[in-house]
Amino acid sequence: MQMQLVFSPAAEVDADALVVFIPEQETRIQGGLATLDKSLGGLLSEITGGEFTGRAFETQLLFKPSGLRARRLLLVGTGKTGKLGVLEMRRLAGAAARQLKAKGLRTIAFFPPPELAPSNALKAIITGVHGANFDPGKYRSDRKPDAPQIETVTLILESNMEAQRERLELAMRMGEAIGAAQNFARELINEPSNQLTPTVLARRAQEMARECGLECELIDEKRARELKMGAFLSVARGSAEPPVMIVLRYNGAPNGTGPVLAFVGKGITFDTGGISIKPADGMEKMKYDMAGGATMLGTMRALAQLKPRLNLIAIIPATENMPGGRAQKPGDVQRSMSGKTIEVLNTDAEGRMVLADGLTYARQLGATHLIDAATLTGAVSVALGTVHVGVFANDDNFFQQFAKATETAGEKMWRLPLDDEYFEQIRGTVGDILNTGGRYGGAITAAMFLKEFVDETPWIHLDIAGTGWLDSDKAWLAKGPSAVALPSLVELALAMADAQK
Ligand code: BES
Ligand code: MN
Ligand code: ZN
To answer: pTM to 2 decimals?
Structure first.
């Protein structure tokens, strides 16, 4: 996607469509929009005094209004003033872009609203347009190879902002890196499991690493056995597809200096549940059980472009969870890489098992800070629905740092507790730890299980089972993979690098 930043009057900008944002209950067109309104002969004042109310996501498309160089004008309502943040901006820009893309338009100009700091607005708009460009219908025969996409985005700011050009262009590059990385992750998440086996996922990671200048190491089954990754391998037993632990590294700081942030992502390319098999209804969705892994690959891709002075590791334990003659069975006891033994009560609680070894390995590679993302539990959707990502943390400081990053990124996340009492639900009888803790607090007991493998290392766990896949179309994003959490992870890494200065 092409991006450009201009400091000329909005009426003079060339594009298929110009998008402007109008708040609700605004009786008077003010600020930068007033100049545009004048060029349009008072059109904006007239329409906002009448049929257009400015309700959030309300849109009105005007064809060739006189006085406008762009071929169309799209008005987008932003709702009550004071409610416009980064999240809203990204969604509103995405909604505008989706609507214009559906009409086959390819070049759009945005005149950002004044409620947001310009650099935040630009970043959010670019990310939002990328989301709008994502098309989940890859295998549909009616999709033409040149299906319309937004190809050029022009961002319009007032001329008094020109002195800040450099800073603003940096914000745009961030939006581009994040948005493109999210689409990279969405493509992976959307792939059916017959197309994206663990082997294929590893190859895609390798290709991406080569293109972006990241180090990539693939740990195959034999090597994993040597490393004693018993929890990871136990899940892979039922599958004919070989498992692989994908390891990426980015070295942005001299070795041995500063923190080492590790991203660990669940990479179950299909989750049947194993011997504790899932019901058929809705099982097809379990192709997205590698969303955490894809999100970590995308995060590394974005950061490889943004080049923070920080050392990063990504670890994605990738395997299918299948029933089979050699599959693990309820009651089995597995020895994890850490040495702790796990009593498998339910083979469908496989995510925490592969993550256990992923987290242990990350620490062995020198991680000082751990963060994992996983479609871990149905229970997190019972707790938080499809709105908030479930966040768990063993360190208040690290949590605060991350919370700030989610704020900057404009993502909704909610912290859930990790009190010691919950451990009683997963205390083992034959082995050290049970892999399920029963129905109560299911998202929490899953997180308590992971906590056993991070020791004292500051750690954050993101349960994205409720938020990683949209079951219905949104105005700003097609139904399908969301790549949620990626923007927050990128912001966290950038902030950690900045804190080192
Ligand atoms: N991948 C699932 C979690 C999941 C469920 C994600 C629904 C998205 C939608 C995970 O491996 C799983 O099966 N978890 C079990 C745990 C239980 C057996 C303790 C669950 O949530 O039911
Ligand atoms: Mn499962
Ligand atoms: Zn799973």
So the answer is: 0.98
